[in-house]
Structures are given as C-alpha cells and as structure tokens.
Amino acid sequence: MRTRISLTAGLALTALVICIGLSRSPPVVARTNGVPIEGTVKAMTSAGEACQDHEVLPSGTTAIRVSLEALLGPRVRVRVARGGELLASGERSSGWTRQNVTITVPPLRRAVSQASVCFSLAPKDETVDLVGGRSSDALVTSGGAGPGGPPGSIYLPQIARPAAAAIRIEYLRPGARTWWSLALEVARRMGLGRAPSGTWIALATMVAMATVVAIVSWLLVRSPR
Amino acid sequence: MSATGRTPTPVNRAQAALCRIPIPAWVAVVACVNAACWSVISPPFEVTDEPAHFAYVKQLAETGRLPAPGTGAIPEEELIALTSLRFFKLSQNAAAGTVASVAEQRRLESAVDQAAKLPRDGSPTAGVASSEPPLYYALEAIPYAIAFNSSILVRLTLMRLVSALLAGLTALFAYMFAREALPAEPWAWTIAGLGVALMPLLGIMSGAVNPDAMLFAVSAAVFYLFARAFRRGLTGRLAVGIGAAIAAGMLTQLNFIGLLPGCIAGLLVLTARLARVSRSDAGRRLALACAIALGPVLVATIAGRLTPHIGLHILTGTLADVGAHGSVLAKLEYVWQLYLPRLPGMRSDFPGLSATLQIWFDGFVGVYTWANVTFPPWVDRVALIPATAIVLLCARTLIQRRAVLRARVSEVGVYVLMGVGVMVALGVLSYSSFPQIGAQFGRVRYLFPMLVLLGAIFALAARGAGRRWGPAGGTLIVVLVLAQDIFTQLLFVSRYYG
C-alpha cells in the first residue's frame, strides 16, 4: 500500500509540475543587437570589463544573453546604464558553459535606447572568448586580454579586425503565449527535419513515454517483496 | 479451463503472459523505449560529436576501411544534410531552432535525396571519432547497410534505434549487478535497474550514434560479471565472459582504459581465492581471461590493422602533454580538486568554483548535448535536496551493514578501483589542456561507465529507508529519475522546437 501511495503521490507531483511549467510562457528573444556570430572578437584570460554602447533594450526585458564562450565559465556581472544612471544589473555564478550565458535582470519597465551594456568577468585560468562579428559599434574593453593576443575560440575563427567588431547580445522577455497554446505548433515542428516526418512523430513519442510510465508503475507495484 | 472452472478471458490470458516475462526483461524494455524516444526528441546530428561518429560508420560501411587519423572535411553528403538541418546555426545561436516549415522540410528532403546519389566513397577522416576503436561502428554498419539506398536521415534513424537497444543492455546489467552484489532484498534490484534505465543522459547518448552507448553497456557487463564471480567464484564460463567483456570494452572506446586497473585487480583477487582450492584451475582461468581480453587487440595491432586507430598515438601524445607541464604534486592536486573540495595548502585550480557541485552535480542534473541545453541554475540547487537524502540513506545502509561490507572488502575495493581508475584517467587527460581549459573532460557522461554503481546507490538508499518504508522510498527514487527524464525531454523540446 505504501508503494502505491508513494507512486501515486510522485506521479501526481510530477504531473502538477509539468502542468505548471506548460502554463507558463517561454522566454522569447524580444530583440538582438543585430551583430552576427562570425567569430571571436576578443579573448579574456584575466579580470576585465567589456562595454557595448548604443544598445536598445525592449521593455519587459528579464534576461540578457551574451555571446561568451568557455568550457567552464567564470562569474559574469552585467550592468545596463545610460548617462551614468544604472538601469539594471544581474549576475550569473561561475560554472556556465559553452557558447552563451544568460543573466537574469529585474524586468525593465520601459524600453531603453542608447544604453551601455557592460559585463565584467574574472577568468583566473581558462580563456573566455567574446563572440560576435563586424559592427559599427565596436566593443570597448578594459583589462582581460592575455599576453600575445587572443588565441581564438575553440569553435569559431578569430575575427580579422577586432577593432571593428562587437559581440552579439540578445534581450529576452516572457512570451505572450503559454506552452499549452504552442503545443500544436511544437508538435508539428517536432515532425519536421527528420525522416520519417510528420506530426504523428510527436504523438507517437508521447504514447511511447506514456507506455514507459505505465510499465514502470506496474513494475514498482508488482516487484517482489 | 482454469482451476476455478472459469474459462480465462483474453485479457486474463494477456495479463498472465505479461506476468511471465521476467522483471529484468521489462527493465531492458523500459530503457530501450526511453532511448528510442530520445532518438526522436534529439534533432538529427545534434547529440555530441554525432556527425563525426556517423562519418566513421559511413567510411566503414562504404569502403570496409577505418578512417585515417586526423581531422578532415566532412563528407559532402553529410555536409548537405547538416546545412539543410540548420546544424551550424543551431550550435552557435541559442535562439535558433530546427526546421520550421513544410517548405523547408521539402527542401531538406530534396537535398538529402540528391545527396544520396553522390558517389558512396566513405569518409576518409572522421574528426574526433577517427582515433576510436571500431567495434561500435562495425555494429552500426549493419543498419547503415540495411538502409544503404535510403537518404542519410533514414540511415541515421535506424542507426539511432540500434543504439537504443544498447541502453536496454545497460539497464539489464545494472539490474543483474544489483541482484548479484545486493542479494538480500529482491525488490531493490528493480529500483537499481529502473533508476539506470530512466537516466536521461543514458537515453540521450543511447538515442544517438555515439560509441558511449556501447561503452556503457559493456562497462555494465564487466561490473555484473565481476559481481557474479565474487559471489560464485571464477568459473571457466565467467573467466571467458570477463575476458570477452574487457576485449569488447577495449575495442569500443578509449575511455574503457580507466576500468582496466580495477579489472586486473579483480581478476587477481578472484584467482587468489580460487588458488586456495586449486592452483592449476586458478592459473588456467586467469590465463584464459587474459588471453581473451588482450587477444583481439594484440592480433589487430600485430596485423597492423588497428595501430593508428587504437588511439595509442593520441594517448601517448596526451600523456606527453601532461608530463610536460606541472609537477607531479600539481597534477595530483588538480585531479583531487576536479572531484573533491580543495584541501588546505593546495593551490586553487578552480577558483570561485566548486568542481564537485558545478561540474559534476550540475552536469548530472542537466547539461546536455554540446552543453548548450541546460536547466536554469535554481533547478540544480533544488535537486540538491533529494540528492542529499539519497546519499544519506545510502550511507545509513552502509553503516548498518558495515559487517557485511568488511567481509566483502576486496570485492568493494575492486569496484572502487574501477571507479577511481575512470576518474583519474579523466583528470589526467583534462590536465593536458589545463589551465587554458579548466576541465576539458568535465562531462558527466565520461563517468557513465560506472553507471551500475549509481543503480546500486539507489538500491542501497531505498534499503536505508528501512524494511517498512524501503519499497516506498525506492519507488520515490525511481519516480524522481523518471521526472528528471521527462523534464529533460521537455527542456529539449523547448530548446529545439519551441
């Protein structure tokens, strides 16, 4: 009986969390700074700060995704300022990995233009690559560059003229639609880009996972005591 | 007609038939179906290094030869598919998704159908996979050959499904390891088997073209065979089985080397035990196991078929890199800190970072594919609560059964040595690129050759809840892993199809 109760409670809790998750809106990219991802703009091997001017942040921004690349990223602090006034700030602890880091910030009540987005990081040993491409608004950095210049990203080429380059930044905010309302679109998309293809792929996967849950439940209940 | 005089209905007959299927077979089915679901959820080629592993199979199936070491261009057929699948955008841009419209799907189908008509002349190199031994790729060459005339996407789908079968083997051996190593409570074997079967990372890697799938299965088999031999003695059959499993491991992936010190120690302990009864039998069985374990690799090396591919050049090159910088003490400190908190007096190799938590625990909770699919940081912190409870319950069982533990110290020592071997091997390999890269091999999947031990930890934790509450506690552990699996699937869906 205890096994049945814990199984029922566990599955019910899981279902509840899934329902809550699907009732929320996924974050969407509200705006980017339009910088293409072409390669490494700069490689930072010690503590430093990089600022990018003339950024436009949409209202409702709740997270900033910065194109930094490392296998074991250090702590990153981000500041959004205009005319010396701090508009938003956030921090991501160390341990993030690979091509970008998302830093949550308090929601911006209104859109902000001509802002400076500065992020500081303090790599002790591992190189952090700042990733982006050609732009009219070049990245301004202080400190951080390793001796002999940037070695280049593990995955991307070194930008030929880093002085005329900026890093890519994306501004995220909660979308207008919940996952529930997006379910059909998501199912259709799951059925694309593969062979065989079709929306039935998503349905078949759900049925297969439901079968897994059923078998697992049955095994737990019938397991010898 | 039944004993009660009633004729059984078809439903009753079906129920009876299902009940006749043994539990380990069900556990294997769960792992297979779960991995098959993952093979659908992960977009084509999006699991770590999948393009390189596919290229290896292409070379083997189309030319019968192994790829040459070193890097080179991706075969044109694969390049066309990757471009049409938005592969390069997906890996660089977190906001990019997979193919989004029917028109794009038609273009993709047209492109891969055209590409299938290109000359089938293999792939001279296979990137990071080139140095790997060929056993897994030889297995994958079978579905590749079956779907030879189909598009690259159909071939990939079939190959992924074959990998998914290996997940079933891994879970099966996890169940059987628990049955041999923890024989007291049969219900706990199911907890161990299901806990492993539902691991999302097992599903992801086994739902893709990646030799990790076979490595996990072979490593699980090695653990099971040793557990059986420790319980029943080193019989001739077990000597053959252990030798064959070690040979298969060495022919599957280089990472298997980490298990070898434990395997050697295990064979020596088992031989010493047997020698108390019969010295000649002990010697014969040890020789048999060693001959089978080393035979295929030695023969292939002598014949010159495997030399460039066994990865010896990479291994020796990496070891030379490791030897070239830092003192022995610095290396030891690095390997220690890669897994455990820094001790007083040690230089900090991971400043501002807890490697135990942020590399391994957070990685276990959810850092997937090319590490570009992750849960938000708060999930890792919440996951600490059940993880701590599981560790404490497991510790409780071990303390309660310390007398049994003492009696089986050599067996436990062998398992620990296997685990430590894997961890030290990863640490030493990671040190070759340190400090430019903090922990190059700091990925949880590299520890999955020890997956059966995790299953055993689940079983021990469930038993730690006591005789009355144990099965209920074990049920909660399995549901927890199931929830992690489902949440991770939803995470993938949101990342790639949202």
| Helix share bin of chain B | 55-70%
List the total number of helices of chain A.
Answer: 3
CATH topology grouping of the largest domain in chain A: Jelly Rolls
Structural class of chain A: alpha+beta
Report the span from N to C terminus of chain A: 12 Å
Spatial extent as radius of gyration of chain B: 24 Å
Give the radius of gyration of chain A. 23 Å
Measured distance between first and last alpha carbons of chain B? 55 Å
Domain tally of chain A:
2
Q: Which band does the percent of strand residues of chain A land in?
A: 35-45%
Largest sheet of chain A: 8 strands, antiparallel
The poorly predicted ranges of chain A are 146-156
Strand content of chain B: under 5%
Give the C-level CATH assignment of the largest domain in chain A: Mainly Beta
Helix/strand order of chain B: HHHHHHHHHHHHHHHHHEEHHHHH
- Tell me about the biggest sheet of chain B? 2 strands, antiparallel
Tally of structural domains of chain B: 1
The CATH architecture of the largest domain in chain A would be Sandwich
Helical stretch tally of chain B? 22
Descriptive report:
The complex is a heterodimer of chains A (about 220) and B (about 500). Chain A is α+β, with helices and mostly antiparallel strands. Chain A has 2 domains: about 1-25 and about 175-220, no CATH class; about 30-175, Jelly Rolls (Sandwich). Helix content of chain A is about 25%, strand content about 35%. Chain A contains 3 helices and 12 strands; from the N terminus they run H-E-E-E-E-E-E-E-E-E-E-E-E-H-H. Chain A has helices spanning about 1-25, 180-190, 200-220, and strands spanning about 25-30, 40-55, 65, 70, 75-80, 85-90, 100-105, 110-120, 130-135, 140-145, 165, 170-175. In chain A, the strands form 2 sheets. In chain A, strands 2, 4, 5, 6, 8, 9, 10 and 11 form an 8-stranded antiparallel beta sheet that branches. In chain A, strand 5 and strand 6 (about 85-90) form a beta hairpin. Chain A starts with a helix and ends with a helix. Residues about 145-155 of chain A have low confidence and may be disordered. A two-stranded antiparallel ribbon of chain B has the order 1-2. Chain B has one domain. By secondary structure, chain B is mainly α. Chain B contains 22 helices and 2 strands. In chain B, strand 1 (about 365-370) and strand 2 (about 375) form a beta hairpin. Helix content of chain B is about 70%, strand content about 0%. The mean pLDDT of chain B is about 90. Chain B is globular and about 65 Å long. The chains are: A alpha+beta (about 220), B mainly alpha (about 500). At the A-B interface, helix 1, helix 2 and helix 3 of A face helix 2, helix 6, helix 8, helix 9 and helix 17 of B.
